[in-house]
Amino acid sequence: MIGLGLIGGSLLRAASAVGRVTWGATASEADVTAAAAEGFDVSADVEAALRRAGEQDALVVLAVPLTVIDDVLRKVGSVAPRCLLTDVASVKSSVLTSVRRLAPQTRFVGGHPMAGTAESGWRAGNAALFGGAAWVACVEEDTELAAWAEVARLALDVGAHVVPLTAKTHDEAVARISHLPHLLAAVLAAVGADGGPVPMALAAGSYADGTRVAGTRPELVRGMTEGNREALLPVLDEALGRLGAMRGSLASTGGLAATINAGHKGAQALAEARDVTPTGVRVNLSAPDAREGLRALGERGGRITAVADDTAIGEVG
Amino acid sequence: MIGLGLIGGSLLRAASAVGRVTWGATASEADVTAAAAEGFDVSADVEAALRRAGEQDALVVLAVPLTVIDDVLRKVGSVAPRCLLTDVASVKSSVLTSVRRLAPQTRFVGGHPMAGTAESGWRAGNAALFGGAAWVACVEEDTELAAWAEVARLALDVGAHVVPLTAKTHDEAVARISHLPHLLAAVLAAVGADGGPVPMALAAGSYADGTRVAGTRPELVRGMTEGNREALLPVLDEALGRLGAMRGSLASTGGLAATINAGHKGAQALAEARDVTPTGVRVNLSAPDAREGLRALGERGGRITAVADDTAIGEVG
């Protein structure tokens, strides 16, 4: 485990708790001290931890901020150039590009656990963080399926279910359901506070809900949104188009039915997606079309819930 | 109590629970049946309930949807033309205009409890709904302060604190902290669902928070937003201006620091507003500048927490 913040620290705890042999390293002295005090095998020597992983053919998990991921990948490329590698960053295309440039011989599978809080650092973590969460494990044209299965097993071991997607499909989806929410929350919090003390005194449920993630550390939000620029721009334009049409309608006819009904329908779509009785699906990981099978499952909103021998077992609504 | 839905039904329960003599009426047969079954003095005859209030000099609370408030005000004007009157609608200027036109001799004080859920109807209500909530009681140039004190006492009796504001100031504030959140939630829910099954499968905390109020009944959201058009348009333009600038920055330099930092600062402003140690304030309701005193308190983010004899007792941060 490289990086022992909220995600890396939680994953080190969770993987250890299910009996995996784990070790970690981070540049954060505070996180090393805190994790060591709890008995974990951790150090501040990232290169030594990577070398050990290379020697033991261990799965390396990069759980560092996006801003330093290239620096760490350079170390991977020089110290453990053929290791089994995954990451937990919230954008996947840019990490894939970096891996291809800086550590091209690694057996890499991009990953993203859809879990987290507004807090950060080792002390904010806990072994139960991933329970019930979706964990994207990327399947590209050249993804090695044995490596993919290793990453999926880790995610399943710590209580998540696995969603197989390409980096591109992942990035488009998180632009909608994570990056746009963060940016709309920021705009709402700014417009609310610009109104002075009266709006603050009257703020209740809808404002508290709508601004909650605006309290996230700005550098984390910048990392994920700025790092997903290509997928985020068209989604922002969709949102701006809807808001502009709404503004025009309010100014002219005074009516907001189109916007409000579309939003209500969207809220129902989320509830319905969670209410479907799923159908079982199996993907033979040694079949020639296994990558297509995994991606087709993910693109239909499905999930992998177990990996047994050479078969990924899942369900789709 | 005219109207026995979420707010009216909760207020009838809460006022009865503190020993007030209450009766109610509504056009909803279902709500009459449900409230009567719980022992409340209710009927489907709105005119009879209003006549009784006029005869007994009782406080009439209009808790009906904005779409029917003019119809009910016509009845008030004909059956109880000089009654003590308040309402609980989420916009205040348009109701004030209607009262001046349809029931001009009533002793009217506009009201708005900042409480509610996405549910509706008698069965959704409960006596504790207003505990800890802000309850705006409007102070206009011609507001009779004895009537204002009666409305404030009702709000205080059911556990709320009272915020004295003009209808105009109220409407500007709720455009920011209630109506804009509802519209942004609708846009987010629509853009999310437009992405198909993958975003729905990955949606987690930030999306769930940001879309929660998009599940509110569309006619309620339309009523409050369309009914507050004048105050809402400039607030929408502020939001569109911030989003447009953000979009431009992402497309050109790729940077989102300005947006994200402003949002983080806004989130802190809300937390700070709630963290201030308040100073006590007293307003003599029989003083010639009592209206100015009350409004000045409200405009600074303050609140009234008690009304004793002729004095409103409050605090401001």
From TrEMBL, chains A, B:
- BP-aspect Gene Ontology terms: tyrosine biosynthetic process
Provide any one GO MF term from the record.
Answer: prephenate dehydrogenase (NAD+) activity
Kinase as UniProt keyword: no
Q: Is Oxidoreductase given among the entry's keywords? A: yes
Keyword list, A-Z: Oxidoreductase
Instruction: List, alphabetically, the SUPFAM superfamilies matched.
Output: 6-phosphogluconate dehydrogenase C-terminal domain-like, NAD(P)-binding Rossmann-fold domains
- In short, the EC number is 1.3.1.12
> Taking every annotated instance into account, which residue ranges of this chain make up the domain Prephenate/arogenate dehydrogenase?
1-281
Identify its protein family.
Answer: Belongs to the prephenate/arogenate dehydrogenase family.
Q: What is this protein called?
A: Prephenate dehydrogenase
